[in-house]
Specification:
This protein is mainly β and 332 residues long. It has 4 helices and 16 strands. The strands form 2 sheets. The protein has a 9-stranded mixed sheet with strand order 15-14-7-6-5-3-4-2-16. Strands 1-8-13-12-11-9-10 form a 7-stranded mixed sheet, sandwiched between helices. The longest helix has 12 residues.
Length: 332
């Protein structure tokens, strides 16, 4: 086994890779089915104005943000370009969100698998994780004039996301190394808004390894050494949704499918750990996770099986919009 970073428990990763944690369940499993996550795509009025200015003749970069909503996930597209500074901190926003490009409809079509390739690159990218980095968007638009000469934007495309359900089995508490990061995460437990996980301040997710005493050792996602360390799973600091927070799902997708992670200490070939610091909880919670792949044979680091959601509509700044597709498309 490879050597991990020194932890409060002292020493490297356990030499024996089997039976790294007690896998007995402490409750009923939680299952997140990704197709049920996507319920709403919002396009800001500023984004529609930017598309109107481009007049269907040039690509337009739109910054995506995601937040949980009743019954699913809201994806919002704003008009901040990839080269502009990020918008001011927002209680519902998150660092690490993706930038998608709206392409003129008259342009030559991309290959059909282009969104899947973009998703693969996003999961491999270094830096902080936002939920939209576990999605891909193929967005096409054209600009024209509506009744009275007012601008209108015709948009169509597909939202692409990993399809495999994520099963999370609650475990009995596992010992945790006493480090600066673990103390920070414990401090924010139970705080309003989820503390470090409920705002753009502080860490929101990262990786988990072990010391030789098999105590869990959380690592920062931006630490380059983490990707070379034997990893047992990931941690998330989030709001009161807990294991059902979309960030948990996104972090699990990245952990299992990113090609940048060099050493996963999976149990039974597919099981990994979630160390969860959820708002309102008195202690950290541990879950054993596994993807229920609809297509067998998906190995760690492989491309995820995906599903597509089609949308189409005409968006007008005056709010008189006509939309259709497999989920909500609205102007906000």
């Amino acid at each position: 086994a490879g050597a991990g970073p020194p932890g409060a428990g002292g020493g490297a990763f356990p030499r024996a890779r089997g039976g790294l944690w007690d896998g007995r369940a402490s409750g009923r499993p939680v299952v997140v089915r990704p197709p049920g996550l996507a319920h709403r795509l919002e396009v800001s009025r500023g984004a529609v104005a930017a598309l109107a200015r481009a007049a269907g003749s040039a690509p337009v970069a739109l910054r995506a943000s995601c937040e949980a909503r009743a019954g699913g996930l809201k994806v919002r597209l704003g008009n901040e370009s990839a080269s502009s500074p990020p918008p001011p901190p927002s209680p519902s926003g998150a660092e690490g969100e993706a930038v998608f490009t709206a392409r003129p409809r008259r342009a030559a079509d991309k290959p059909r698998d282009a969104p899947e390739a973009a998703l693969r690159e996003s999961l491999d990218a270094a830096g902080r994780l936002g939920v939209s980095r576990a999605l891909a968007l193929d967005l096409r638009y054209s600009a024209g004039a509506g009744p009275g000469g007012s601008p209108q934007i015709r948009v169509e495309g597909e939202l692409v996301m990993p399809a495999a359900p994520l099963r999370m089995k609650p475990l009995l508490p596992l010992p945790l190394c006493d480090t600066g990061l673990s103390r920070t995460l414990r401090f924010h437990l139970g705080r309003a808004g989820g503390g470090a996980g409920g705002s753009r301040e502080g860490p929101r997710t990262g990786y988990v390894t072990m010391d030789q005493a098999r105590k869990l050792l959380p690592l920062n996602e931006t630490d380059p050494k983490a990707l070379r360390t034997p990893l047992t799973g990931f941690w998330v600091s989030c709001g009161p949704l807990g294991a059902r927070d979309p960030l948990v799902w996104a972090a699990a997708v990245r952990f299992y499918h990113s090609r940048q992670i060099q050493d996963r200490a999976l149990q039974g070939g597919s099981a990994f750990l979630l160390l969860l610091f959820a708002a309102g909880a008195s202690t950290p919670q541990c879950f054993e996770c596994a993807f229920e792949e609809p297509a067998p044979g998906k190995a760690p680091g492989s491309a995820p099986t995906t599903t597509r959601f089609h949308f189409a509509g005409t968006l007008r700044p005056d709010g008189a919009n006509e939309v259709a597709g497999s989920f909500e498309l609205v102007l906000s």
